[in-house]
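Mods, move this if it's the wrong board.
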Amino acid sequence: MCGCYEIGGCYEMDYPTVYDAFDIVVTHRLLRRLNMERYKPIIIRIIENIHSNHNTLGSWKGFYRITLQCIIEKTLEIATKNAYRTLTNSSIIKLWVNHVLYRMPSVEEKEDIGTRVKHHRESFEKIKIKLEKLN
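Not the wrong board. Structure tokens:
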């Protein structure tokens, strides 16, 4: 035993360090799929930022109940933004989106027309009808 029961419990005397927090965060089930080599500096920066703002990561109980969830949420938020940025900058995705939006249907096969082509065709038809009414 740690001998601190007269103060109200051992968890109030012992606090997680930045290194303890990092070891716990990288083994969390929600972060297992992340590339830890890439996100290691990001996680450490998040933990150090919280530690510097509050001068502690809280007691062990407080760390597991509040701080850990905050670190996980911030890490996943950054990972999601990075994934979205990667997808939006992908040339394969851009080509696929353009194909879906602007494809013309094949004469031999019954293909769906692209959504933008359909929109522009309908818009053109409406303008054509308005012009015919004017003449």
